[in-house]
């Protein structure tokens, strides 16, 4: 499992997944001041939502890389037919994918928060919510990637399948981050719900993806 994690992590960086996600994240966030105008108060108030939407779209952009390359070179057939539990294999691949794509997005958030004039407290809260919530997007994406792995052009289908499922992650992630921007908004409760969603998808997502991969292999 550790060898699989290191292999997928290395491939994630070598194939440009992290760079592609970061560039797309930067493009989305940098375009918002031009769309909303130079009002820094408005940008700071909408900052957590802007950063979360950019991170969500950037994560969706790289989800098709989870299994497609392994499918093309035959590695996926060996993983499915091997003696290791497929659930653990998918979970390890999700962890490596998140470390290569989701984690860099969270680490880049403090710098992109300057673009929208986000304060220190709101920036820290947004980073925390991204660290807690983006693994759920990866685990949900594993289900969509497993369903579309047998299709020749399943990248768009993965995004279409995963986006509705990821909306609760977006809602509670933004709600928790707003708890530090607005005094009327809570912080702990949405963050706890976001963590619960991540734990739930961390179990259900790899299980459903493993079943989809076995069905695709059959």
What are the salient characteristics of this protein?
single chain; 218 residues; elongated
Strand content: under 5%
Helix and strand sequence: HHHHHHHHH
The end-to-end distance, rounded to whole angstroms, is 24 Å
Largest sheet: none
Integer average pLDDT: 83
How would you characterize the overall build of this protein?
InterPro entries: Cyt_c_biogenesis_CcmB, Cyt_c_CcmB_bac. This is Heme exporter protein B. The chain contains nine helices and no strands. The chain has 218 residues and is mainly alpha-helical. The chain has one domain. Helix 3 runs antiparallel to helix 8 (155-178). The longest helix is centred in the C-terminal third of the chain and has 30 residues, at 188-217. The chain is elongated and about 55 Å long. The model has no long low-confidence stretch (mean pLDDT 83).
Summed up, what is this model?
This protein is an all-alpha fold.
SSE topology sketch:
Elements: H1 2-14, H2 17-36, H3 40-61, H4 68-73, H5 75-81, H6 86-113, H7 120-147, H8 155-178, H9 188-217
Helix pairs in contact: 1-6, 2-3, 2-6, 3-6, 3-7, 3-8, 6-7, 6-9, 7-8, 7-9, 8-9
Protein name: Heme exporter protein B
Organism: Plantimonas leprariae
InterPro entries: Cyt_c_biogenesis_CcmB, Cyt_c_CcmB_bac
């Amino acid at each position: 499992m550790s060898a699989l994690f290191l292999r997928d992590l290395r491939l994630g960086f070598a194939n440009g997944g992290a760079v592609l996600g970061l560039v797309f994240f930067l493009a989305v966030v940098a375009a918002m001041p031009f769309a909303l105008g130079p009002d820094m108060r408005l940008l700071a108030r909408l900052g957590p939502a802007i950063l979360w939407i950019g991170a969500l779209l950037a994560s969706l952009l790289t989800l098709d890389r989870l299994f497609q390359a392994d499918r093309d070179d035959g590695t996926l057939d060996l993983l499915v037919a091997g003696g290791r539990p497929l659930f653990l294999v998918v979970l390890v691949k999700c962890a490596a994918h998140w470390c290569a794509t989701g984690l860099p997005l969270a680490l880049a958030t403090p710098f992109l928060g300057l673009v929208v004039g986000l304060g220190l407290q709101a920036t820290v809260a947004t980073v925390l919510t991204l660290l807690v919530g983006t693994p759920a997007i990866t685990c949900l994406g594993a289900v969509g990637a497993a369903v579309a792995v047998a299709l020749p052009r399943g990248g768009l289908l993965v995004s279409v399948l995963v986006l509705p499922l990821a909306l609760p992650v977006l809602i509670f992630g933004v709600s928790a981050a707003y708890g530090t921007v607005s005094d009327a908004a809570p912080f702990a409760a949405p963050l706890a719900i976001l963590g619960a969603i991540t734990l739930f998808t961390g179990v259900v997502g790899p299980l459903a993806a493993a079943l989809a991969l076995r069905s695709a292999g059959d």
